[in-house]
Every structure is written in C-alpha cells, then in structure tokens.
Design a protein that fits this description.
Layout: E1 2-11, H1 15-42, H2 59-78, E2 91-94, E3 100-101, E4 105-112, E5 115-124, H3 131-135, E6 139-148, E7 151-161, E8 170-175, E9 181-185, E10 190-193, H4 196-215, H5 219-250, E11 255-259, H6 264-267, H7 275-280, H8 283-296, E12 300-304, E13 326-328, E14 334-336, H9 337-345
Parallel strand pairs: 8-11, 11-12
Antiparallel strand pairs: 1-5, 1-7, 2-6, 3-4, 4-5, 6-7, 8-9, 9-10, 13-14
Helix pairs in contact: 1-2, 4-5, 5-8
Length: 358
C-alpha cells in the first residue's frame, strides 16, 4: 500500500539559471500546445519523438512534453473536442530518471550554450517541523518547476508507503469555519480542533492591510502579503490535521470519515459576514493533509455524502435546523451542531460504496 503526494521546495537559481528556466518553461508549454493543436486537427494521437521537436529543451524534457500533450489530447477527445485546454502558465517537468536531489541542490539537465547539461540548482528546505525533509526521504517521482510571485518552486511527487491499521474503529470529522474541525469516534469520544475566532481575526487583519496597500497602489507589497497569508493558512492546516490524526491514533481509530468536498462553497451554511472566509479557506487542502498523514499511520480515510449531516438527529433520525451552534430535537437530544455533523458523518453513505464496516 502506498500514496502519492506533492512536496514543494523553494529554489534559489542564479540569475543565469533563472533566465534559462524561464525560457525552458515557455518552450515547454508552447511545445505541448503545438502538439495538442496538431493532434486535434488530425483527430489522432501524435507519433512524434523528441527528434521531431525543435524547441530549446533537453531530449528527456521533450519526451515529457510529448507525454503531457497526449494526456491533454485524451481529455479533449473524451469531451468530443468540445473543450480543448490551452496551457498558459509556464512550467517544465522532468521525470524521476532525469534529476537528482541531495537535500541542498536539485540537479537536472537544462540548456547551457545550446547543450543539455546536468546542472545543480540550490534548493532551500525550510519548514518548522522538518515535514518536507522527512517526506523527501521516500521514493521521488516527477519534478515540476514553476515560478510564483517571482519565486521559483520545485514541486516533487513523492510516493509514501502506508501500513494497514488494526481494528475497524470509525471516526467522523466535520470541517467548518467557526470550528475548523470536530471529531467523534464511534464510542462517542469527541474533540474540537483549531481556533475559528483566531483564524477569522487573522484573515480580517490581512484583508485590512491589503486594502490599505491597494489604496497606495503598492502591488509588490500586496503580493508578498498574499504569500504570507497562504503560508500562515497552510501552517494552520498542518497543525489541525496532525492533531486530528494524533487523536485518531490515541483512540485506536482505523477509519476516518470526511465529507466529500465537491461544491462545498455552494452547499455550506454560512452567514454573510463569513462568506469571504468561506471562499478563501482551503477545505480541500486540510482534507488532503488529513488523508496523507493518516495513511502514514495506517489509518484509512473515506469520503461520505454530506447531505443533511448537520440536520439529522443521531438518536431518532428526525431532521431539524440548528439554532446558531445548538442543535435540539423533539426527542430530547441536544448537542453542538458540529458535533452532530461529525456523529452523522461516521455512518453516512461512503462515496463509491467501498466502506469499512462501522
């Protein structure tokens, strides 16, 4: 058993290396778009090899571009060419046989003086809990390099072995804004995770500073602030997901159930004042963090249908709407609304139907 995740590493290329990476990234997406256009016109997959591509790219990267173009063509063909994706954001990909990583440099073939030369580019591994360092000790997959807000980022695919956990104890987890996460085990042990008030305060503060900078037209400062906010949000998700998985381990849970997150921004209940927070918080990322950290501990994650999980009474199955954070039922059952959601998630229908017995 294994799972694949993406680890981001900051790159510190020299000025010359940065210019080469920019040129290669533009050539990479241009090559893909050109090949896709040709395949769509002919309504069949290309038979071209790296020798047929004249772009300023190493042959290994050309081969990867051909592979990616075929993948895009398959998607277009599946939609009967109703939509043909056109790549715009520059990036470049190397497969795992064409680069190496020694925790201080990433070495890959780049175009130096019109020749493909394997070149080390300095990499910076900075994270508070050495999460990336530990993850990058596992089997490495493809390397994707892109530029974001003027900074170069290496996205490395990592395959992590997982273990099978004992028992069939189930825990439901409800994700939200006022309470970032609530977990309830099938023997009724419950825990609240994160600080919703603190999160909303921080986001209001970021918005206020961003607005003030916008009036002064300080666009670079706004971009830096956006990056700072994203780093802070990601760190919160790491902390909450780690606490949830630790709680599951302590209670010998073998299956964590989460709501399926499709359309959450349209279906989630929220007030007008919370709407901005809802549309900027990454529920999907938190769900991903829980899933990969749980997998490392041998805990399976299942996604369930979220319909009525916060309205159905766990005791008598009657549907009631909660008043603010309190849920009351005619049968006498009373609980915090998010606790009700987590309790119902434990036994809600699993998407795809491949559920563990509760």
């Amino acid at each position: 058993m294994s799972q694949t995740i993406t680890v981001k590493v900051k790159l510190l290329p020299t000025k010359e290396q940065a210019n080469i990476l920019q040129e290669m990234s533009r050539a990479y997406i241009s090559t893909i778009n050109m090949l896709v256009s040709e395949m769509v016109a002919e309504k069949k997959s290309t038979k071209k090899s790296s020798k047929d591509i004249s772009a300023p790219l190493p042959s290994a990267v050309k081969n990867q571009a051909i592979k990616d173009a075929k993948s895009v063509f398959k998607k277009a063909k599946k939609s009967k060419f109703a939509t043909v994706p056109v790549l715009k954001k520059p990036f470049c990909i190397w497969n795992n046989q064409n680069y190496s990583f020694d925790f201080s440099h990433i070495s890959m073939p780049i175009m130096m003086d019109r020749k493909a030369t394997k070149t080390p580019i300095r990499a910076l591994l900075i994270d508070k809990e050495n999460r990336n360092f530990d993850l990058l000790k596992h089997k490495l997959g493809t390397l994707r390099i892109t530029q974001k807000s003027g900074k170069w980022i290496a996205q490395i695919s990592v395959t992590i072995p997982t273990i099978e956990g004992p028992g069939l104890k189930v825990m439901g987890v409800d994700l939200g804004l006022k309470v970032p996460a609530v977990a309830v085990t099938d023997d009724e042990k419950a825990h609240f995770f994160g600080n919703g008030r603190q999160n909303k305060y921080k986001k209001r503060k970021f918005r206020s500073v961003r607005k003030a900078l916008g009036k002064k037209k300080k666009w670079n400062a706004i971009r830096k602030l956006d990056d700072k906010e994203q780093r802070w949000m990601k760190d919160q998700d790491h902390k909450v997901s780690r606490a949830i998985v630790n709680f599951a381990k302590d209670n010998k849970v073998s299956v964590i159930r989460l709501e399926q997150l499709a359309n959450i921004r349209r279906t989630a209940r929220t007030s007008r004042k919370n709407e901005k927070n809802l549309h900027t918080w990454s529920f999907y990322r938190l769900s991903q963090f829980i899933e990969y950290k749980a997998g490392l501990e041998g805990i399976k994650v299942e996604h369930v249908n979220p319909a009525y999980t916060s309205q159905t009474c766990p005791k008598c199955s009657e549907k009631n709407k909660a008043q603010d954070r309190k849920y009351k039922c005619k049968c006498g059952f009373e609980k915090h609304r998010d606790l009700v959601g987590a309790m119902n998630i434990r036994y809600a229908p699993v998407v795809g139907g491949n559920s563990q017995s509760a």
